[in-house]
Write a structure and sequence with these properties.
about 230 residues, about 25% helix
């Protein structure tokens, strides 16, 4: 009730309650509840994942999203897909919101590049931490630092949201059949020496020096030559 909320805000009354009963607003940027009526909120995982879908994917009604985004949403809003929530919301594990955002990026990449047909996809789309999925390396705080998915039969468009893996230091998507150029924001991170990129010539925007027959320094640090492109 409003009178209790006013007492909590204005006096020493301390309220500990379930999220269903707390009118505190939710911050979709940080993934935290605003200060307000309830001082301590018991997070409901289902509600939390719906807040995630609304804030990050654009809608918690997955059917309203596009084909791939709908599948990303279905996966992300099912708490059974995340063993981090096996015993409810992990109160002593900071960074859950960012962990979910990075997980959604990897799930989207898997779905857009026909992950079910990759030559190696151990762990992907399971319920274990994505830090244990084949080709993924993380910090001790579970932030993605390395994607090594070379020669795994990835197809489809080159991912356009990898810039939102802020701790990514090494990216290897070479020897695959992806189309499109590596996005400018990812290239900018590479040319500022914060990311090492190994990719196919078809995806690298590096200029080609016709006098030496080599690619110039630029977005990609290592380029897998394509003979047909080279001869052209």
């Amino acid at each position: 009730p409003n009178d209790l909320c006013e007492r909590s805000i204005e006096t020493a009354l301390h309220i500990y309650a379930d999220v269903d009963n707390c009118p505190n607003g939710f911050d979709g940027v940080s993934g935290e509840y605003h200060s307000g009526c309830c001082d301590n909120i018991l997070v409901d995982v289902d509600i939390y994942l719906n807040e995630f879908a609304t804030a990050v994917l654009g809608d918690n009604n997955c059917e309203n999203l596009g084909e791939t985004e709908s599948s990303v949403c279905d996966y992300m809003t099912n708490k059974a897909n995340h063993d981090i929530f096996a015993d409810g919301y992990p109160k002593n594990s900071p960074g859950v919101w960012d962990w979910l955002k990075e997980r959604a990026i990897l799930v989207r990449m898997y779905l857009n590049s026909s992950g079910s047909t990759w030559s190696v996809n151990i762990g992907w789309m399971g319920n274990t931490s994505h830090c244990s999925w084949a080709g993924v390396t993380c910090t001790t705080s579970n932030q993605v630092t390395n994607l090594a998915l070379d020669n795994k039969q990835l197809v489809g468009s080159f991912p356009n949201d990898l810039i939102y893996l802020p701790y990514l230091e090494s990216l290897n998507l070479s020897s695959n059949s992806m189309v499109g150029t590596i996005p400018y924001d990812v290239c900018d991170k590479s040319t500022s020496n914060n990311l090492y990129i190994n990719a196919d010539a078809a995806n690298c925007p590096n200029n080609f020096d016709t006098s030496t027959g080599t690619y110039l320094a630029g977005c990609c640090d290592d380029i897998l030559y394509d003979v047909d492109i080279y001869l052209n």
